[in-house]
Design brief:
15 strands; 423 residues
């Protein structure tokens, strides 16, 4: 994502001892704007021997974000901080790097660090990251990020409002008191009626939390939210198919954020969105409703939940709009547009490819606010699906968003190193 505030924070990752001992000592996924680095630090190791006392004997790797445009600085960082073994220069016909800009690093690393490198397909890196690093026992303590409680409550409230509106409309046309017992009787088959009653009961939060899981179900749709949003069907065999590609994601968010909101980077734009209120720029379903009309006169907006967006950024088209919203509100509305686009596309591709599990990764969803906004759209669609005879999708948000390709690249180098050692 353009202009992301990378900061200097690192995350320490606990892995099996032998996994940490790949001679190269690092794996790089160089994206369009952000490079994700997984490395063995000189603070923790000296020539492959653990020196850090952290209360366990497992291996230690570190995660770090760096700006892709600073290729020279990244190479210098590795020279200064990475515990790269001398054998890295001789024990491989070429270590793997991955990412859109991986080729930019090849000559620099070969000239400066005297190592041979080659590019790894991002598709292979994703598959290796999901199956080798995440699903296997290499990171047993990792669990998916929890669904946002705010998103869960929002989706559940919107679904209940939708059901109330639909039932009221049906009662107005056919007679009745509009109760939910009556709604259950209106719906066929019986299983859907039971689902409706569960939605309206105290078990609903449990029902909503069932839309996430610890276990990836194959095949799955992997949605990578970075500068753009790539959607790839990953198979249990390790194969993959391109599901779709959405050019509206991080770059779009930051580009319009700079132009319209004056934000200097992604971090500032997210802070603005957190302070803002998207309802001041979006036309909501509640804004569209007309009271005091008969069922025959009511339009279809009457069946939509009040909390649902009818027209994204629609209030900007009104003459007095410029006096009724702030740049923070505009940032919040912009984030809502981006997340809506990604969510709607993800749901459509998942249905088209007949997968039951959707896995989200990428630097964009490293932000808790972005995840929450995205999940509001995803969970509402998931709760509505059984009402039309579809199965709810399960959503998994991977820990350490954005690093799955770096994990997969490390795994490929580790597999290659093990193969060489066994010869």
């Amino acid at each position: 994502m353009a202009g992301v505030d990378l900061g200097t924070e690192e995350v320490l990752l606990r892995v099996p001892k032998d996994v940490a001992l790949v001679p190269l000592g690092f794996a790089i996924d160089s994206g369009g704007s952000v490079t994700k680095l997984l490395y063995r630090s000189k603070e923790d190791y000296e020539n492959g021997i653990r020196i850090a006392n952290v209360g366990h004997d497992d291996g230690i790797l570190r995660l770090r974000h760096l700006a892709t445009e600073d290729c020279d600085e990244i190479v210098k960082f590795l020279q200064d901080h990475c515990d790269m073994l001398e054998t890295a220069k001789t024990e491989s016909e070429g270590w793997f790097l991955t990412g859109l800009k991986a080729r930019l690093f090849r000559k620099k690393m070969e000239d400066t660090m005297k190592i041979k490198v080659k590019t790894l397909s991002e598709m292979v890196a994703i598959s290796s990251g999901l199956k080798g690093f995440y699903s296997a026992a290499l990171l047993p303590e990792l669990r998916p990020l929890s669904l946002s409680e705010e998103a869960v409550e929002h989706a559940l409230g919107s679904t209940r409002d939708f059901l109330r509106m639909m039932n009221s409309a049906a009662a107005a046309q056919t007679g009745g008191d509009g109760s939910f017992d009556e709604l259950k009787d209106r719906i066929d088959p019986v299983a859907v009626g039971q689902y409706v009653m569960k939605l309206m009961s105290t078990d609903a939060l449990t029902l909503t939390r069932e839309l996430s899981d610890d276990v990836i179900e194959w095949p799955c749709l992997n949605v990578i939210c970075g500068s753009a949003a790539g959607m790839i069907v990953m198979k249990d065999s390790g194969g993959f198919e391109i599901g779709s590609f959405l050019p509206i994601a991080g770059k779009t968010f930051v580009g319009f954020g700079r132009l319209l909101c004056g934000a200097k980077d992604f971090a500032e734009l997210v802070e603005m969105a957190a302070r803002g209120d998207s309802r001041k720029v979006d036309v909501m379903a509640s804004d569209m409703k007309v009271t005091g009309v008969t069922a025959e006169e009511a339009d279809w907006y009457s069946s939509l939940p009040d909390s649902l967006v009818a027209y994204s950024m629609g209030k900007l088209a009104e003459n007095a709009a410029s006096e009724s919203f702030s740049k923070d509100d505009l940032a919040a509305g912009l984030l809502n547009v981006i997340c809506c686009a990604i969510a709607k596309m993800a749901v459509a591709v998942a249905r088209q490819t007949k997968v039951k599990c959707v896995v989200f990764d990428g630097s964009l969803v490293n932000s808790a606010l972005v995840r929450c906004t995205l999940q509001k759209w995803l969970l509402f669609d998931s709760l509505i699906q059984p009402l039309i005879g579809e199965q709810s999708l399960k959503w998994i948000f991977l820990p350490y968003p954005g690093f799955i390709c770096a994990f997969g690249t490390w795994y490929q180098n580790w597999e290659m190193y093990k193969g060489q050692a066994e010869k």
